């Protein structure tokens, strides 16, 4: 068997989009993974086994999101490149993702490492024998740094839903709204938010028009 180290693969990912729904975080992301055939024989890819993780940062915990897999390249010529796609979509408990004292809005723009380890099977086997009789185990690893994108309207609805669960908004939620409104992040802004934050409909309207710029 050929002396072997895990082969390095490369990966291109979209932003990791986080939104909030009923106390949970919803994650969406797509990654294209590329790997090389370093041998002098052609491969017929029959299967790829994948383990994917979002690694811990100072804001987040280690995370193993759910994904679907689509093999794009089924035949890889000698020295050629194979490709498969991972589509991540998961609903995760907030407590299982965020670090202590971290709010969802704090994650916007944060960069996190995403690591994908995988094994390629050719003709049903996790190795290939080249024309010289050398055996190549087909284990790969790829890491990509991905920027988190947070949906602002989802954050606000998440805060409101968690705090008041659909009842009349009091000073606490009003203060939160006061701190979110453009140019407000001050004590005076929080007080103003507490005064004007009367109903759920009003808050959603302010966020929709003032923050998101929607008509």
Helix run count: 4
Structural class: alpha+beta
User: What is the helix/strand order?
Assistant: EEEEEEEEEEEEHHHH
Total strands: 12
- The termini sit apart by 66 Å
* Major β-sheet profile: 10 strands, mixed
Shape: elongated
What percentage of amino acids are in beta strands?
35-45%
- Rounded to an integer in angstroms, the radius of gyration calculated over CA atoms is 23 Å
The parts where pLDDT drops under 50 for at least 5 residues are 163-171, 180-201, 203-215
Instruction: Indicate the mean pLDDT.
Output: 75
Share in helix: 10-25%
Topology (elements, then pairings):
Blueprint: E1 7-8, E2 10-13, E3 16-21, E4 24-36, E5 43-54, E6 67-71, E7 75-76, E8 81-93, E9 111-122, E10 127-129, E11 135-137, E12 139-150, H1 152-164, H2 171-180, H3 187-196, H4 200-211
Parallel strand pairs: 1-12, 3-12
Antiparallel strand pairs: 2-4, 3-4, 4-8, 5-7, 5-9, 6-8, 9-12, 10-11
Helix pairs in contact: 1-2, 1-4, 2-3
């Amino acid at each position: 068997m050929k002396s072997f180290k895990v082969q390095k693969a490369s990966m291109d990912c979209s932003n990791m989009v986080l939104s909030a729904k009923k106390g949970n975080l919803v994650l969406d992301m797509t990654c294209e993974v590329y790997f090389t055939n370093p041998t002098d024989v052609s491969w017929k890819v029959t299967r790829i086994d994948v383990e994917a993780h979002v690694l811990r940062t100072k804001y987040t915990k280690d995370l193993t999101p759910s994904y679907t897999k689509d093999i794009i390249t089924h035949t890889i010529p000698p020295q050629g490149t194979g490709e498969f796609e991972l589509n991540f979509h998961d609903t995760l408990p907030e407590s299982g993702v965020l670090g202590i004292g971290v709010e969802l809005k704090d994650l916007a723009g944060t960069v996190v490492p995403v690591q994908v380890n995988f094994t390629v099977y050719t003709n049903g086997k996790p190795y290939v024998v080249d024309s010289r009789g050398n055996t190549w185990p087909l284990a790969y690893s790829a890491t990509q740094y991905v920027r988190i994108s947070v949906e602002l309207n989802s954050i606000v609805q998440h805060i409101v839903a968690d705090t008041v669960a659909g009842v009349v908004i009091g000073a606490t939620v009003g203060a939160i709204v006061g701190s979110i409104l453009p140019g407000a992040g001050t004590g005076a802004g929080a007080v103003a938010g507490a005064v004007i934050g009367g109903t759920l409909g009003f808050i959603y309207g302010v966020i929709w028009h003032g923050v998101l710029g929607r008509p």
